[in-house]
Amino acid sequence: MKPYVVAIDGPAGAGKSTLAKRLAKELKIAYIDTGAMYRACALFAIESGINPKVDSPKLRALLSDAELDFRTVKGEQHIFLNNVDVSREIREPHISTGASDISALPFVRDLLVSKQREMAQGKSVLMDGRDIGTNVFPDAEIKIFLTAQVEERAKRRFLELQQKGDSSSFDTVLSEMIARDEQDKKRAYAPLKQAEDAQLIDTTDLNPEESFEALLSHIQNQLDTLS
Ligand code: DC
Q1: Closest C-alpha to ligand 1, atom 18
Q2: Ligand 1 centroid to 13 CA: how many Å?
Q3: How many structural domains are present in the chain?
Q4: Which protein residues are within 6 Å of ligand 1, measured from CB?
Q5: What is the span of the domain harbouring residue 51?
Q6: For 25-51, what is the mean pLDDT?
């Protein structure tokens, strides 16, 4: 079969990363977590004392020198920034907001989108994010828009943070998620949007196993039509 792209987009906390990782393993194709790339850029800016919201010469210089790559560590995909594993740090709540801020800057998107296209060259990939089906790979063979009601997404994120020992309240998680979704949807350049030819999958009433099965069966049906 020719290399193909599976694009999974959707708002924060819809379960994209967890499901995408599992699906890519099942399909035996590469997985690229594009959110981790925006998060690593935000982390680099914030740690360097540079405002991730503003397009500045300092931010441009910093990011043009940044080395970003994914490596497999103990069977799991980790993201490295300038040869340092930052996979844990990029999941902190203030980095989620910083990633949404920095992702609104057109030069940052252009930089990362070209890296994402390069990473997918010549092989089948499953990529998740906000603009994969609309902008990064508008011709992707399979497109899914994964969503769930915001209260349910916030509940899942709240439980995940609690397990990590984070003490954020449910109300804080919910209001940060609403703010981030709004910012991601309203930005002028490549906003979060369902591609016209994407399959909408709502996981509000599905458990993780049911969500996985729903996505896998859609992908397999689509793959059957390709071969
Ligand atoms: O998927 P995530 O929560 O790790 O993404 C973090 C932020 O990065 C998200 O709020 C918006 C931005 N993002 C984006 O603009 N485009 C992508 N393809 C992926 C993420």
Answers
A1: 129
A2: 11
A3: 1
A4: 12, 34-35, 38-39, 96, 99-100, 103, 129-132, 180, 184
A5: 5-226
A6: 97
Cα dihedral 141→71→112→30 (10° resolution): 0
Q: Which of 19, 38, 102, 153 to mutate to test the pocket of ligand 1 (most atoms within 8 A of CB)?
A: 38
Q: CA 63, 52, 194 angle in degrees (round to 5)?
A: 95
The whole-number average pLDDT for the span 142-150 is 98
Give me the pLDDT at residue 1, please: 85
Going from the Cα of 201 to the center of ligand 1, the distance in angstroms, rounded, reads 19
Cα(100)–Cα(93) distance, rounded to whole angstroms? 11
The pTM of this model reads 0.96
Domain CATH for 85: 3.40.50.300
pLDDT in tens, 96-131: 999 999 999 999 999 999 999 999 999 999 999 999
Residue pair 187/104 in contact (Cβ under 8 Å)? The answer is yes
